[in-house]
TrEMBL record:
It is found in: Membrane. It holds the Pfam family PilJ. InterPro entries: NarX-like_N (IPR029095), NarX-like_N_sf (IPR042295). This is NarX-like N-terminal domain-containing protein.
Amino acid sequence: MIVKRPVSASLARAFFYIVLLSILSTGIALLTLASSLRDAEAINIAGSLRMQSYRLGYDLQSGSPQLNAHRQLFQQALHSPVLTNLNVWYVPEAVKTRYAHLNANWLEMNNRLSKGDLPWYQANINNYVNQIDLFV
């Protein structure tokens, strides 16, 4: 026995599933976009940290009066919201660990900068910049 259904019900069901699929795919696309924007901002800040690390070394070497201001700018960039909000489920543990290492090493770098320890800074700046690169 053949069951007959109205064509309009079949079309309505098909239309409903098409709309549902489009809503789901749009939602996934928006989530991906939001995630990639945060990633791009984090990469931009990491590049800024690299440049600022070298600038701090130059300030220390040249005895620049702007050293303290540049240290504060570095600290602000390191503690920017996009970097400090890494404790979410989709951020890999390796990224969280690398950020924690950057923070810990910054405390030592900042301490050495405040003391004017140029030889130590020159010996350790490349390792710190490499850590920034690994973080990204």
